[in-house]
């Protein structure tokens, strides 16, 4: 007997739930960076190709898609965006975003403090004990790096939460603009993102504006984006494969930025459409334990990943590209498996604390 098709709402919910974990794994792959100074090879064309395809092309769909999901879920079921509605949303997001954001950045600060006090640090960074009040604040917003530039809070993956919290604060503006202007404002915003035009404002990147607004558009217009992308799958999937291959062999070209960002848009359509189709066909199943662990994996992985990379490269000294490629897949696998296991243990024995530091997820 053929399984009846899922309702659009159910399909959207299951698609988002299913994709949370693989997209988070993709983020871990993005952050798996082997410093050239620690690689015992001068020329690594095969490894570079594998790394570029995985981390710089395919995995780059993850963050924009998370922002799109966030915008859609934030504005879903909203008819009138009143002040009470806005206040309710802020209260809820303070629990799901702000509290975990503060905890994990504070935890990383404490970790670095302990390491420095124990004399185990490289001495490359300023001792935390000597921080001025402004530097303490910057650690939770835009941590100065060794070269003097700034980019992210001290737990660097959490720049995503930082930008998300900013756009949530600005959600009345997003609602008003998207509700009234629809595609007349979204098309220019998407084009600006494709052209890599940035706002220059830390915490308000073009990426978050573009994809949070796209999610808001689908929600406010009552458009079932999963169904739309599912219908576009026959075109989007082969097109994305071709675009990814072309981009792989176009590194350094003047047009690669535009190709890359356009490829992300096409890839999102292909990934969401393919996931929805496989879920409806019953070929893919949601693993709740994996899906539920996604936020913990996101928040915890930066320091363990960095340490494991250093340990593996210093102990193993890979002398072949095959060894480098193997490590590139093994190291993230260990970090992901350890994160899932640690989350399961914490949820079992410290459920209240676990819920607090993961935003109730």
Which strands sit side by side, in order, in the main sheet?
Answer: 1-2
- What proportion of the residues is helical, as a percent range? over 70%
The arrangement of helices and strands along the chain is HHHHHEEHHHHHHHHHHH
Give the helix tally.
16
Taking all Cα atoms into account, the compactness measure Rg is: 21 Å
Note the main sheet.
2 strands, antiparallel
Query: Could you tell me how far the N terminus lies from the C terminus, measured between alpha carbons in angstroms?
Result: 35 Å
**Count of strand segments:** 2
Structural class: mainly alpha
- Could you tell me the strand content as a percent range? under 5%
Q: Whole-number average pLDDT?
A: 92
pLDDT < 50 runs, ≥5 residues: none
Shape: globular
Description:
With 361 residues, this protein is an all-alpha fold. Strands 1-2 form a two-stranded antiparallel sheet. The longest helix has 35 residues, at 83-117. The protein is built from 16 helices and 2 strands. The protein is globular.
């Amino acid at each position: 007997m053929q399984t009846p098709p899922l309702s659009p709402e159910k399909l959207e919910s299951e698609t988002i739930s299913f994709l949370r974990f693989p997209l988070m794994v993709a983020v871990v792959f993005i952050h798996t960076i082997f410093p050239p100074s620690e690689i015992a090879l001068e020329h690594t064309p095969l490894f570079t190709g594998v790394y570029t395809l995985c981390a710089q092309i395919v995995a780059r769909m993850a963050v924009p898609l998370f922002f799109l999901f966030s915008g859609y879920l934030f504005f879903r079921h909203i008819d009138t965006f009143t002040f009470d509605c806005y206040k309710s949303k802020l209260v809820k997001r303070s629990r799901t975003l702000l509290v975990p954001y503060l905890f994990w950045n504070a935890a990383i600060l404490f970790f670095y403090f302990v390491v420095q006090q124990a004399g185990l640090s490289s001495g490359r960074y300023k001792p935390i004990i000597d921080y001025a009040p402004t530097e303490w604040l910057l650690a939770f917003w835009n941590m100065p790096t060794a070269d003097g530039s700034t980019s992210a809070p001290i737990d660097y993956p959490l720049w995503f939460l930082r930008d998300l919290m900013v756009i949530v604060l600005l959600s009345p503006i997003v609602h008003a603009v998207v509700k009234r202007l629809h595609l007349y404002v979204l098309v220019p915003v998407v084009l600006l993102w494709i052209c890599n035009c940035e706002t220059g404002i830390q915490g308000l990147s073009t990426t978050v504006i573009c994809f949070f607004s796209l999610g808001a558009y689908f929600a406010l217009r009552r458009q079932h984006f999963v169904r739309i992308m599912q219908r576009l799958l026959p075109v989007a999937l082969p097109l994305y494969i071709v675009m990814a291959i072309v981009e792989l062999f176009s590194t350094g070209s003047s047009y690669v930025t535009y190709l890359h960002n356009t490829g992300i848009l096409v890839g999102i359509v292909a990934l969401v459409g393919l996931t929805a189709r496989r879920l409806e066909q019953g070929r893919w199943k949601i693993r709740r334990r994996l899906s539920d662990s996604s936020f913990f994996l996101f928040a915890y992985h930066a320091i363990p990943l960095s340490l494991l990379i250093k340990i593996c490269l210093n102990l193993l000294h890979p002398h072949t590209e095959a060894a480098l490629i193997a490590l590139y897949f093994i190291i993230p696998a260990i970090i992901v498996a350890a994160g899932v296991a640690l989350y399961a243990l914490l949820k079992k024995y410290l459920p209240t604390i676990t819920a607090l530091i993961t935003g109730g997820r």
